Amino acid sequence: MTTPAVFLDRDGTLIHEVGYLDRLDRIEFFPWSVDAVRLLNRAGFRVIVVTNQAGVARGFFDEAFLAEAHRHIDDRLRAGQALVDAFYYCPHHPEGRVERYRVACECRKPKTGMMRAAAESLDLDLARSFVVGDRWGDVQMAQAAGSRGILVRTGYGQTEEQNPQEGTEADLVADHLMDAVAWILRTAGGA
């Protein structure tokens, strides 16, 4: 595995947190998101979105809507010359209403299933990779995969920062994605 990646949480990190995102008109990018992804692309990182989407298991929306939402996000990024290499999501939840998604799986963060699947498909070096998210679960996933984890204060991040998790320490707590990307680029010296 040769290529480093930056794994981005979707809601609260790349786009605004709106609860269960169930309509395209609720997708709102942070003003720095497109530029941040483009900087990662130019530095040679693969950019992967990894997102828990329990709304599928809870019956709030289906996987077809998720695919549509990710196409919409991808189109917006591409319009700004930014590229997400892949979108991975976990539709499961052990307390879901939709029986086929009511499972304890290996892909739900903080477990590493989404990262491992991306690493296998895209030939990624997890030891040289980063995870950026607004929840301690994102940082825990990074730690479990041998990557570096960054907590951003957008989305739920400020609340999460005030409630540290025993045994979980972020490599960085940043105000937002652009600050995280600046640190990644300084730390990694490019990819």
Give the beta-strand count.
Answer: 6
- The helix/strand series, from N terminus to C terminus, equals EHEHHEHEHEHEH
The total tally of domains equals 1
Strand order of the largest sheet: 3-2-1-4-5-6
Query: Given the helix and strand composition, which structural class is it?
Result: alpha/beta
> What top-tier CATH class fits best?
Alpha Beta
Shape, principal axes of CA atoms:
globular
Q: What oligomeric state do the depicted chains represent?
A: single chain
In CATH, the topology is named Rossmann fold
- The CATH homologous superfamily is called HAD superfamily/HAD-like
- What is the CA–CA distance across the termini? 13 Å
Rg, alpha carbons: 15 Å
Strand content: 5-15%
User: In terms of per-residue confidence, which ranges show pLDDT below 50 for 5 or more consecutive residues?
Assistant: none
How would you summarize what this structure contains?
By secondary structure, this protein is of the alpha/beta class. The protein has seven helices and six strands; from the N terminus they run E-H-E-H-H-E-H-E-H-E-H-E-H.
